[in-house]
Design goal:
91 residues, alpha+beta, three-stranded antiparallel sheet, 3 helices, 20% strand
């Protein structure tokens, strides 16, 4: 989920390179929504199944920080207030 990836970025020293295809997709979504500043570059494939791109996350924007602040409030509320059957909780 791109928003959980955004939360992870908050605790990572930036800039950071991302090479996992799923994480590159998260970077793409977060860039498109204006929550981070990043560069996505195509890599030369070394073989038939080589990954197609990598991303460098440069910063979290003010909008991204505002979204993280909202997520922090929701997560704290969910963890302390909402419990479901058999101990499951809203994440």
């Amino acid at each position: 989920m791109p928003l959980s990836f955004l939360m992870r970025l908050l605790h990572t020293q930036l800039p950071v390179q991302v090479v996992e295809p799923e994480e590159v997709r998260h970077v793409s979504v977060l860039m498109a929504t204006g929550l981070i500043e990043a560069r996505i570059t195509a890599l030369q494939p070394a073989g038939r199944y080589a990954q197609a791109s990598m991303a460098t996350v440069e910063s979290i924007t003010d909008e991204g920080l505002a979204e993280i602040a909202k997520l922090g409030d929701i997560r704290n509320f969910a963890h302390t207030s909402m419990r479901f059957a058999r101990g499951a909780r809203l994440m």
